Amino acid sequence: MKEKLTLMIPGPTPVPERVLKALSKHPIGHRSREFQDIVKSTTELLKWLHQTKGDVLTITGSGTAAMEAGIINTLSKGDKVICGENGKFGERWVKVAKAYGLEVITVKANWGEPLDPENFKNLLNDHQDIRAVIITHSETSTGVINDLEKISSYVKHHKNAITIADCVTSIGACEVKMDDWGVDVIASGSQKGYMMPPGLSFVAMSEKAWQANIRSDLPKFYLDLISYKKTVDKDSNPFTPGVNLYFALEEALIMMKEEGLESIFMRHQRHMKATQEAMKSIGLNLFAKNGFGSPSITSIMPEGIDAEKIRKTVKEDFDILLAGGQDNLKGKIFRIGHLGFINDRDIITAIASIEATLNKLGKSKYPIGTGVAIATKILNERSN
């Protein structure tokens, strides 16, 4: 039976029925009082999610639009910035920065390894003219989590620099304490931890980021955050927004508030641990360095078998979509998403399908059920 696709990728992620029902409502005028009430409600809930008292602005666009907006609204041509690069998205922010004429110093780590915060500290000490540190918190392409809190703590003590963070697959999955950590710009997208379809993105701005905005001279129009700031203060939007996506956003944020941040983060930690330990128990290698796996996605590097063959068989036999490797990792790794609207059943099902696939391909090293048993034990720990 087809037509029963299960998404176990880092985005788009599964959408709850409550959110789908909200999405299906008839549109309303985006200048109406009813829509203004929704903007007000979602803005307050977004601040709660980001753990900030500052501004969180909603853009109809992708997570890349949010990151680009964060960069071009706080920097000027020729500014010197540090970009962290240990995966596909770190590479993207280097390209965006260079496209706008910024002078980029790159801090690199091998794919699968985290960025070293001390490298940022040393560069900040050596270059007082640095204007921004641009990093990816959860590097989706490799399944690695970077130490945003520590890196941001070094930036806070620099007289000129701000932190611009891609939190696209970390918001709604793990702690991102914007105010406490001193993160100045946070970008995220709706199709990840927000449990929504793609189409909305979010830019959170600190007071320090707004101060940087005053001197910013990079070109902008649709992504001019001053326009969004002026209108959000009036519970509105500068352009025609994705009205129905706002309906979905409100419902998704209400669901998240009902679950609570601590419970959301604990759920993602359990699912990460269960997935990681299950994969190791059946002889598959984790790609991310030990202790630096992302709570959103687990990357696997199988030995002696094409990772794409595993993905293809899981999709054909079980209608479960896993993510593949990108660029030089294509065919070498596959990635199991456990982000957003994922429950224990989804984790168990994905692990069982991978075990069955290895058996079918003649690559099983351990009896079928080994991984499921390990995952079940970990998932049951919550009731102990």
Automatic annotation (TrEMBL):
GO biological process: glycine biosynthetic process, by transamination of glyoxylate
The keyword Hydrolase is assigned to this record: no
Binding positions for substrate per the UniProt entry: R335
Transmembrane segments: none
Record GO terms (molecular function): alanine-glyoxylate transaminase activity; L-serine-pyruvate transaminase activity
Names of required cofactors: pyridoxal 5'-phosphate
Protein name stated in the entry: Serine-pyruvate/aspartate aminotransferase related enzyme
Keywords on record: Aminotransferase, Pyridoxal phosphate, Transferase
Domain of life where this protein originates: Bacteria
Protein's UniProt keywords contain Chaperone: no
Organism, as annotated: Prochlorococcus marinus (strain SARG / CCMP1375 / SS120)
Listed PANTHER family: ALANINE--GLYOXYLATE AMINOTRANSFERASE, AMINOTRANSFERASE CLASS V
